[in-house]
Design a protein that fits this description.
The protein folds into two domains: 9-85 and 279-441, Jelly Rolls, CATH 2.60.120.200; 103-260, Galactose-binding domain-like (Jelly Rolls). A hairpin with a 4-residue loop joins strand 13 and strand 14 (196-203). The strands form seven sheets. A seven-stranded antiparallel sheet has the order 2-3-4-21-31-23-24, with no helix packed on it. A six-stranded antiparallel sheet has the order 1-32-22-27-28-29, covered by helices on one side. It contains one helix and 32 strands. Helices cover 3% and strands 42% of the residues. It has 445 residues and is mainly beta. It is elongated.
């Protein structure tokens, strides 16, 4: 069935061509807050495009080139990021080896950001790149170690007791031999902030010559675990070693077995996975980042607001707000929509509604069609019970002025704000808006 707006399975995918611009009919004011790198700028005038993932965003334009949001303060600007539609699993940063100055470690050479090699003074990074689509670093060690060697790519990943973690990588010997090396190993260590409290390792000597993928899985059982580390270790006896190794596709993830490898940039804002679509993301720092809407959104009649986002910690995360206190999509899970300084609000907490757990993407859409009439959908599911209205939701006194407020957390994939003007928002348009934002956020409805 086609409802006249392109709702059909053939348009939900890479060829998806619908956009919020199709909602601009009559006297509607439609704010398109969806993200594309060619519409984000590093300067307030909106003339210099951002450099890429990890860049602070000073200004955003919509598909027409109209400015929609800015941030004047350096350090309070959210950053642009890229992540795969399937989500970010790999907690290791910089398994691509970005940012290395090739040379002798400790003698002018610099390890790629995030890499650490212990007990191997004079080790050299002699190459880096991609092999068969996967990132690698070549390490040469013609030296006498000071202890067992550890090669790792991160300082620790937050973990909770009882979680299952898997560390995986490939290592291949490309020159030299194993003289004075007892074995190679894959290790997962539980760390309580001061000391290692538990570890699990797998002997991988047989894999070094062939470069096959190796993995170790561990369920966290320590008494005070705060994070987990994954290490490629070399057990040494005594004397000199002379070996050249290619370490490839390091990954550590909350999983019972290794999954498809995700490549990550040095700062964690650029994550990709072969065969998966990449999403455009804005990431506030949960401290002071926010953006100001270029013009106040202050409807006097019916309006619709929608956002695709992921929250960390408490489910929710404020997306739109006003300087006088008007809040939409509040951080409290029960309060979905508020206005007029929070004194007038509508709460949605029905049984069976998707909860929007922490670290899960969700799409929220609310339509206010009257002063005391509102509906809300989460991931396409309508709230049909457990709705409480307090005061009038039309108009929003003072309007909405911000995209994010200081302290917002999580990730923002896009949003739409619609002042309906003289043309009521139809159900067909709502469905299409939901599908569009779900696609932008990698969300399944």
């Amino acid at each position: 069935m086609n409802l006249g707006l392109g709702i059909g399975p053939t348009l939900i995918g890479p060829a998806f061509s619908w956009s919020p611009s199709r909602l601009r009919v009559g006297t509607r004011d439609v704010r398109d807050l969806t993200l594309r790198p060619n519409r984000m700028y590093s300067n307030l005038l909106g003339t210099t495009l951002i450099a890429g993932p990890g860049a602070e965003v000073a200004a955003m334009r919509d598909s027409r080139g109209v400015m929609v949001a800015t941030q004047t303060t350096f350090g309070a600007r959210p950053k642009y990021a890229v992540e795969p539609a399937v989500g970010v699993r790999n907690r290791i940063r910089n398994n691509r080896g970005d940012g290395a100055t090739l040379g002798v470690i400790g003698s002018g050479g610099v390890l790629p950001t995030g890499w650490f090699i212990s007990n191997a003074p004079g080790a050299q990074i002699i190459g880096q790149g991609f092999e068969d689509g996967f990132p690698f670093i070549d390490i040469e060690m013609a030296l006498t170690p000071t202890g067992n060697i550890g090669i790792l790519l991160q300082a620790g990943t937050p973990a909770v007791l009882g979680e299952v973690w898997t560390h995986s990588f490939s290592v291949r010997r490309i020159a030299g031999d194993d003289t004075n090396i007892v074995r190679h190993r894959n290790m997962i260590l539980e760390f309580n902030g001061t000391t290692f409290v538990a570890e699990q390792e797998a002997d991988i000597t047989a894999s070094v010559a062939t470069g096959s993928r190796v993995e170790t899985t561990r369920t966290l059982t320590g008494s005070a675990t705060t994070n987990v580390r994954g290490i490629y270790g070399i057990v040494w006896t005594s004397g000199a070693i002379d070996i050249r190794l290619r370490v490839k596709w390091m990954q550590i993830e909350r999983a019972a077995a290794a999954t498809a490898v995700q490549t990550t940039g040095a700062d964690g804002f650029d994550v990709t996975e072969a065969g998966q679509r990449s999403l455009d993301v804005l990431v506030p720092d949960a401290t002071d980042d926010f953006m100001t809407l270029f013009s106040v959104f202050e409807p006097t009649g019916a309006y619709t607001l929608a956002t695709a986002r992921m929250s960390t910690g408490t489910p929710g995360g404020i997306t739109f707000a006003g300087t006088t206190g008007a809040v939409v999509f509040s951080q409290s899970q029960a309060t979905f929509l508020g206005a007029n300084g929070g004194g007038n609000s509508v709460s949605f907490s029905p049984a069976g509604w998707p909860s929007g757990a922490a670290n899960a993407r969700r799409l929220d859409l609310a339509r206010v069609s009257g002063a005391t009439t509102a509906q809300a959908w989460r991931n396409g599911v309508l709230a049909t019970s457990g709705i409480t209205l307090e005061g009038n939701l039309i108009p929003i006194v003072g309007g909405l002025t911000r995209l994010f407020v200081p302290g917002s957390s999580g990730r923002f994939y896009g949003g739409v704000m619609i002042d309906e003007g003289d043309t009521p928002f139809t159900d067909a348009e709502r469905l299409m808006t939901q599908r569009y934002l779900a696609y932008k956020g990698g969300i399944t409805l």
